[in-house]
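STRUCTURE:
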């Protein structure tokens, strides 16, 4: 079996898979570059296209993100994440949602950044420090066969003040329950009680009896673009099973329905704890898998533990 690879529009090579490494090295020697090198990774199904910017340059990630994220005409994913050199930490992460909007933070994404950096030799630090839009976060890496298998991320303290999330206080009404606010949607025909939390990015959390019955496609974009949220918002619905377990679903800002949201799982846990629904250690079930979340009293920081998976690598042609 042979593969055909086109470098730009004028260099065409046909070669067997066993010759792939040689041809790639030879093309680098000649100065040819077969598109943008990428790696597809996911954290419990929350999948992104990752680019090693120690070696690659992405001049316009806002434009590139929607193109590579398209699941029909691109690589496919919930967005684009750049792994970059940092002057302050071991590596730096920038993330762009599927619509090109740059996000401050991605909980599943940062675990994959740590795995890529460690497994590919960008940094062998453990704990690893990663610069994000949220600040510098510390990650403890759990290895299996000398590769990263699980990652615990210190997600720092949750932000609860409405203006800092940000939420427009004039467009929400205090609910009867502590930390909950009522918002009006669908031209005022529906009132919902939410807890608002920022984990460096904004989240709205709604508690329901049956999370499977929530019409995400209808209500998700309505809340994301609600005028109360100047930067838009990630939206989550959670069903409590016990003091230590819950199930959640997500409409992610700029990406729509996703299989998982790491910062969202942290926000949901904080909301559940704040409103007295659960204890401080939680097993959180998401459509793509499970995350362990702990909001520690000792330092007020939220800790998230979960896997990171590398799927495949390739070259993408603009």
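SEQUENCE:
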């Amino acid at each position: 079996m042979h593969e055909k690879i086109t470098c730009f529009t004028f260099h065409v090579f046909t070669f067997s898979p066993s010759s792939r490494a040689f041809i790639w090295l030879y093309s680098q020697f000649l100065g040819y570059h077969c598109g943008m090198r990428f790696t597809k990774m996911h954290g419990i199904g929350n999948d992104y296209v990752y680019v090693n910017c120690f070696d690659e340059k992405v001049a316009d990630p806002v434009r590139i993100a929607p193109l590579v994220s398209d699941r029909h005409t691109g690589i496919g994913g919930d967005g684009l994440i750049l792994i970059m050199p940092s002057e302050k930490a071991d590596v730096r992460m920038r993330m762009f949602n599927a619509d090109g909007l740059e996000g401050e933070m991605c909980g599943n994404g940062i675990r994959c950044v740590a795995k890529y950096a460690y497994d590919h030799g960008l940094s062998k630090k453990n704990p690893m420090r990663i610069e994000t839009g949220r600040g510098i976060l510390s990650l403890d890496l759990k290895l299996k066969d000398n590769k990263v298998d699980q990652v615990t991320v210190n997600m720092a303290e949750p932000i609860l003040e409405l203006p800092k999330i940000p939420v427009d206080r004039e467009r929400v009404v205090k609910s009867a329950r502590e930390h909950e606010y009522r918002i009006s949607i669908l031209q005022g025909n529906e009132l919902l009680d939410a807890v608002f939390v920022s984990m460096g990015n904004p989240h709205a959390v709604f508690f329901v009896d049956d999370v499977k019955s929530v019409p995400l496609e209808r209500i998700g974009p309505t809340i994301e673009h609600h005028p109360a949220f100047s930067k838009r918002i990630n939206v989550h619905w959670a069903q409590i099973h016990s003091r230590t377990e819950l199930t959640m679903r997500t409409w992610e800002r700029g990406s729509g329905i996703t299989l998982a949201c790491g910062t969202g799982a942290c926000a949901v846990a904080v909301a559940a704890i704040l409103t007295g629904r659960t204890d401080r250690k939680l097993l959180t079930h998401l459509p793509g898998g499970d995350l362990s979340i702990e909001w520690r009293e000792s330092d007020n920081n939220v800790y998230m533990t979960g896997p990171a998976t590398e799927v495949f690598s390739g070259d993408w042609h603009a």
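REMARK: The longest strand covers residues 135-144.
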